[in-house]
Amino acid sequence: MRRVVITGMGTVNPLGNDVQSTWEAVKNGKCGIGQITHFDTTDFKVKLAGEVKNFDAAEILGAKESRRMDVYTQYACAAAKEAMEDAAFDLEKEDHDRMGCIMSSGIGGLSTIAEEHGKGETKGYNKISPYFIPMSISNMAAGQIAITYGLKGMCTSVVTACASSNNAIGDSFHRIRDGYEDVMVCGGAEGTVIPLGIGGFQAMKALCTSEDPNRASIPFDKERHGFVMGEGAGILVLEELEHALNRGAKIYGEIVGYGSNCDAYHVTAPNPEGEGGAKCMALAVKDAGLEMDDVDYINAHGTSTSLNDAGETLAIKKAFGDHAYKLKVSSTKSMTGHLLGAAGAVEAIFTTLALRDGFVPATINYREKDEACDLDIVPNVGRNEKINVALSNALGFGGHNASLVFRRYA
C-alpha cells in the first residue's frame, strides 16, 4: 500500500491564526479561552468561549469573496491558504484530476442561517440574500477550496458532528493510500460562537457555565461540568510519499492508520462502557499495521464533560490493557476549547508536531484528580519527550467514533 505523508498545514483557532504561533502557544501551555465578545451574553448563563481573535477575512481572502462566505468557510479558506502555501506546490505541473478535497463541519453555516432567518422574519423572505444557500450549506468550504486551487479529484464534505474532521482526514488518507488521488486537502471548520449556537448547546446543559477561563475547559478534572465552545479551522495537505519526494516537499509526518465506527447507543451520550471507542482505536492501530503497545501518545477527545472523559478513559483501558498506564494521554481542548467539527483537524496538527518536535502537549488547568480518569494526562506542563507513534481520537453526537494514527517521519 502507498505511504501517505503530511506536507502542508494551516489553522485558525483560539490560540493563533497560523500554525507557528499556535504551536508556540501549545508548547507554552497558553489558554485561548476568554469572555465571549462576538455578542452580548447578558441573558446567557454561558459567558466563555474559545474565540478566534484578530481575524480579518477581507485582508486574507479579499473583501468581495469573503462577503460571500459564512464565517466557517472564511476560516476554512484562510487555513487552506496557509496549508497550500506551506506545501509549496507548483500547480501548473500537477495533475489536478489527482488532487482532491474532503472538508468537514459539524454544523456548517449556522451564522448565515441565523442572520438570514432574522432578516426574513423582519423584512420578508423576498429580502434574504441570493447567497444564503451557497453560504450556509456545509459542503461549501470544500467547494470553495477546490475552486480556488483547481482540485478536480474527489471533493466532498463529511458531517459526523465532533468526529467530522477525523473522518475527513481518515477518508482522505485512504483515498491516497488506495491510489485514487495523489494529493488531498482535508480538515474541518466551524463558526458557531453566535447566540443560536451557544443557546442551543446551553439548552442541552452541555456547556460549562464557569466564568473563570482557567477553570472552564478542564478535561479529566473531577470538577469538570461541560465543554467550552471553540471555533476555527484546521487543514492538512496529505500526499503520497513518492509524489512528495519527487517534488522535494518538506514532510512533517506520516499518517498510517484510521478507524471509524459507531456506538449505536444514544443521540448525544457516548456508551459509558467505552466499547465503541475501544474498538475504534483498535481498528486504527490494526489499519496502521502496528501493535497496541507501539502507541506512545494519545491526543484525547477529552471534552471536559463528565461522561466523555470517564468513558474515553475506560475505552483506552479496554483497548490498550496494561499499556494504557504507560501512555501519555492529554487533551489540548484545555487550551482551545471544543471546535466541534474542526476539533479533530486542529488536534491532528498538534499531534503531528508533537511527533516531529518530541514534545507532548499538556492538559492545562488540571487540579482535582478524578479516580475515573486515572491515566497519565500530562497535567499542566508539557514534556520534551521523543514519541514515535501517536493516536488522535474524535467522538461525536450520534455515537460517531474516529481515530487516526500518526508516525514520526524519519
UniProtKB/TrEMBL annotation:
InterPro entries: 3-oxoacyl-ACP_synth-2, Beta-ketoacyl_synthase, Ketoacyl_synth_AS, Ketoacyl_synth_C, Ketoacyl_synth_N, PKS_Beta-ketoAc_synthase_dom, Thiolase-like. Keywords: Acyltransferase, Fatty acid biosynthesis, Fatty acid metabolism, Lipid biosynthesis, Lipid metabolism, Transferase. GO terms for molecular function: 3-oxoacyl-[acyl-carrier-protein] synthase activity. The active site is at C162. One of its GO terms (biological process) is fatty acid biosynthetic process. The keyword DNA repair does not apply. It catalyses: (9Z)-hexadecenoyl-[ACP] + malonyl-[ACP] + H(+) = 3-oxo-(11Z)-octadecenoyl-[ACP] + holo-[ACP] + CO2; a fatty acyl-[ACP] + malonyl-[ACP] + H(+) = a 3-oxoacyl-[ACP] + holo-[ACP] + CO2. It is an enzyme of class 2 (transferase). Gene3D superfamilies: 3.40.47.10. Its EC number is 2.3.1.179. GO terms for cellular component: cytosol. PROSITE patterns: KS3_1 (PS00606), KS3_2 (PS52004). Residues 1-408 form the Ketosynthase family 3 (KS3) domain. Involved in the type II fatty acid elongation cycle. Catalyzes the elongation of a wide range of acyl-ACP by the addition of two carbons from malonyl-ACP to an acyl acceptor. Can efficiently catalyze the conversion of palmitoleoyl-ACP (cis-hexadec-9-enoyl-ACP) to cis-vaccenoyl-ACP (cis-octadec-11-enoyl-ACP), an essential step in the thermal regulation of fatty acid composition. Belongs to the thiolase-like superfamily. Beta-ketoacyl-ACP synthases family. This is 3-oxoacyl-[acyl-carrier-protein] synthase 2. It comes from Pseudobutyrivibrio xylanivorans DSM 14809.
